[in-house]
Description:
By secondary structure, this protein is of the alpha+beta class. Helices cover 32% and strands 14% of the residues. A hairpin with a 6-residue loop joins strand 4 and strand 5. It is elongated and about 50 Å long.
Amino acid sequence: MIESEMVEVYRAADNAEAHLLCGIMQNEGIKARVVGDHLRDVLSHLAIGAVPPRILAPPDGYEAARKIVLAYETRHKAPVDGSAAQWICARCGELNDPTFDVCWQCQSEHGDPAE
């Protein structure tokens, strides 16, 4: 699919984030691609303002790609002021650090429903 037929799904903070998310999308069968990643490298050497790499996907993969982005942002993007909230495990009720994806007490994944 040519780039003009694809839609923007996400503007990443850097090349690593763009390629990480794009890889997740591709593993889910979405034909996503990163654009602007090489441009960012070139422009940074010229002291020109940052150009964020973008992730593009076909229109029929947009909704699935946005779900991946939202899940990523929910788990990995803490507020700038560092006030990320602790979470309570649905299985055992233990209080966990916001950086934990798994409960330290019972090993249940964050967001798993209680049994």
